[in-house]
Amino acid sequence: MAFLDHVLQPPSYGWTDINGNLSRPTTSQIIVEFLSRVNIFRDRKNWLPFFSWLKVLCLIPFFVSFALYYMNWWTLICAFIYGMIVMGTHGTIWHHRYCTHRAYKFRNRFWRFITQNLTINVIPEEIYVISHHVHHYKSDQPGDPYNAEAGFLYCFLADVNHQPIAKNLNEQQYKRVCYLMAHTGVAGNSFKQYSCWGSYASPVWAVLSWILNWLFWFLVFYLIGDLALVTCLFGAAAVWAIGVRTFNYEGHGKGKTQHRNGVDFNEYDKSINQLWPGLVAGEWHNNHHLYPRSARSGFKPRQIDLAWYYIKLMSWLGAVSYYRDYKQKFYDDYYLPYNKLKNKTSDTSTLTNYSHAKST
C-alpha cells in the first residue's frame, strides 16, 4: 500500500465497512472512540490528541470570564476581529499553506518562528499536517480523516478519532513522517522516542512552546488592555478553536455535491468555495483543491485572500524567499475558457460538463 494509506491510526470502527464502502459510525461509536483516544492513563501514546483538547479546555475559563465581566461593544468587536479574522487567517498562513503544502519558503528560521507564533498557540502542527496530506490524497473517499459524508460529528472530532499518526510505523515509514514535518521547525522525536510516545512531536518541547507562547501573549494583551483584553482575545481563541473543527464538514458541502457553475471548478471532490471562510481567512476551498500548493487561493475578482496578502507582504520585506502562485494557471485553464464558452452558449449542462472535464 502507499504510505498515505496507512500513515494515520485507523479508528476502531475502521475506514470502510465489510463491503468496502465508507464506514459511517453511530454517534455513540464516535464518542466512545473519542474518550478512548484522549485517555492518557490507558496509553501515554494518546498524549497528543489529549493535549490538543487540553488547550481548548484551558481557553474556556477565559471565555466565561469575558462573557461575565468584560463583554461590551468594543470588546466584542475585538473578539470578532481576533477570533474570526486573525486566528482564521493565521491558520491558513501557517498550518495550511506553509506547514502542509509548502506553498512558500521563509528566508530564515527567525521569520518562520515569528509567523508560527503570531497568534495564541492552539492546534498542534503534527495533527494538522500529516492528516491533511491524507485528506487531499483521499478527498471525500474512505480514509479521508474528515470525510463529510460520514456526518458532522465524524468531522468535528476528527482531530482525535482520525488524524493522529499510526503508532506502529516502522523506521522507514517514520522517516517519511519526519520529512513531511521537518520544515515546520517543530521539535521532532527520534524513532526510539516515537516508539515510546507515538508521535513526531516531542511532549516536552510541545508543552514548553505552548506555555511560553501563552505567557507572551497574556503579557502583551495585559499591557495593552488589562484583563479585559486578555479574557476577550483568549476567549475569542476558544471560539475559533471549536469553530474551526466544523470547517471541513461545511467546506465539503456537508457531504453533498453543491458545486455551482462558474464558482466551483474542481468537481473531482465535494469541496466548495464559501464566502465567509474566504473573506475572513482566505480559505477558498474549492480553488485550494484545484491547486493545493498555491500560496494564493483567492483567484477570481473580489475573492479576498488575507493569507495571501500576508505572504506577499513578507515577500516584499524579504522574509519570504519563494512562493507559488497559480492564479494565472487558474485563469488559463478554467476561468477564461469558461467565460468564453459562457458567452457562446446558454446551455448550462455544457458548462457543467466543461467544469467536470477540466477537474478530472
UniProtKB/TrEMBL annotation:
Compartments reported by the entry: Membrane
**Signal peptide extent:** none
GO cellular component entries: membrane
Instruction: Spell out where the chain crosses the membrane.
Output: 47-67, 73-94, 200-221, 227-247
Listed GO molecular functions?
oxidoreductase activity, acting on paired donors, with oxidation of a pair of donors resulting in the reduction of molecular oxygen to two molecules of water
For whether the record's keyword set contains Membrane, the answer is yes
Swiss-Prot/TrEMBL keywords: Fatty acid biosynthesis, Fatty acid metabolism, Iron, Lipid biosynthesis, Lipid metabolism, Membrane, Oxidoreductase, Transmembrane, Transmembrane helix
The UniProt entry, under Pfam families, shows: FA_desaturase
**What's the protein's topology in the membrane?**
Multi-pass membrane protein
UniProt keyword annotation of Membrane present: yes
Record InterPro entries = Acyl-CoA_DS, FA_desaturase_dom
Alphabetical GO biological process terms = fatty acid biosynthetic process
Fatty acid desaturase domain boundaries: 72-305
Q: PANTHER family given for it? A: ACYL-COA DESATURASE (PTHR11351), DESATURASE 1, ISOFORM A-RELATED (PTHR11351:SF31)
Return the similarity comment.
Belongs to the fatty acid desaturase type 2 family.
User: What protein name does the entry list?
Assistant: Acyl-CoA desaturase
